[in-house]
Amino acid sequence: MNEALPDVPEVRVVGLPQLTSGFDLVDRLDLQMHLKVHGPLEPLGGEQLAQLAERINLRGRGGAGFPFHKKLRSVAESAIKRGVRPVVVVNGSEDEPACRKDTVLINRAPHLILDGALLCAEAMGARTLVVGVTRESTQRSMEQALAERGLSNGRRSALRARVQRNPVRMVTGAAASLIRSIDGGPAIPPGRKTSASKSGVGGAPTLLSNAETFAQLAIAARIGPERYGNTGLYDEPGTVMLTVSGAVARPMVVEVPTGVPLRYVLQLAGAPPLPQGVLTGGYHGKWIDAATVNEAIVSRNSLDAVGGSLGAGAILPISQDTCPLGESLMVAKWLAQESANQCGPCYLGLPAAARGLEDILNGGGAAALEAVRQVAKNVKRRGACSHPDGSAMFLESTLKAFTEDIALHALGNGCGRPVAGVLPLFEGGAAPTGVPGGEDEENGPSRQKIFVDWTLCRGHGLCADILPEVFQLGADGFPTVAQAQVPRYAEAKALRAVRRCPALALRIEDSAPQAKAPSRNLPVLSQGRGRRALGR
């Protein structure tokens, strides 16, 4: 039950392959085979590359779907303005248990990804390329690919390229987490939202996108926008890599042209003819029902229109003979475990939401249902990364999609169906100490607890303003927690909250012996005055 997918599951293709070309010949395309299959690739000028990305409407394939040409121009403009060289980062983390498309590409076609990344580096004059991964197989394949190109030691090229290995955690794949780890810190969000295009690795403008995005760019650069547009939909041309799992006979990664009916993809993987629901976009995605599946096609706009989400390309049907709320509860608990434990909406809100969903299953009534809705609403747009937002979207979608089951559980005796555990999961929680990007003395477990004295609290609300990572105000204007761990990065703010509380209702106690944080030498980014960027 809830078994994780292998790194490289079965790979299929609908129509003519593009990203998966050559997969029928070898298990992994080394540089020589890559060139035989795809041919050589000529460099493009910066503005040419941006126009190409714009003409094919290339959007990030990691989930957010941000237009790639806008990101490319933003990084280049920032680099020109500041007179520094930008950095290119490939995000191949893919730490969601239901996603394997990027992992498949890195393991089987790493040079296609490097083609796209090197095109961007050459166009913008970047001298640093980093590929972020979390699995041993992806690290091994990408390091081998860099060695095959003579980029592994930086001596045969002006470009310095390396692989950054981080722990397998949901928050590791966030852009801010990856950048922080590259700079020598832990692979968790830094507690503040910044634009990588303006200040990323080492403070330099950074072009960061996921592995499939760079691979798609490499395909388009070879065949041109007209030929690329001959596949798929007019407004979303090309192919899409999907990971199909859940209640299917054959979990797989499949490359399909946009516009293919979703039901055809499900049939290809051996899904039930009439699924009870299909989770689209993965565990930060949305459920759609069986009737909607017949209307949906594989495209970002189509899935959005029917209430679904393309997201990171994960498609997970469940059958009629399993409890959908029970399946969703297991995911909700896993999402709560994946918190970085530094923002209140995440490490307090997500466990509360999971407990609320469990209360619904156990007959908690309308009060339990309303509590889950309120928690999901409260955590949105309040975290240091998108994890609480995506988790809240999943919870709200669950409540919307399975109203009949909610009524049976919350107001009756349950739906009478078992939980089959068909949605793939793996054990989550904090990264182990000593793992690159794991918990350390500066950013690890909290050393302090903060307490509210209810006999003194008057609901001024300053604590929530100063320390939103810990305190949220309820409907009555008072804090919703009486005590909480203080994230290490927020200890100074916690002390300020204690000192500024007008009612002197807060106190801090040490929860563990303090130890001196070890010193760390951060990598220094070369800031040459080269201005080779878009429009050169």
From TrEMBL:
Superkingdom as given in the UniProt entry: Bacteria
Protein name (record): NADH:ubiquinone oxidoreductase subunit F (NADH-binding)/ferredoxin
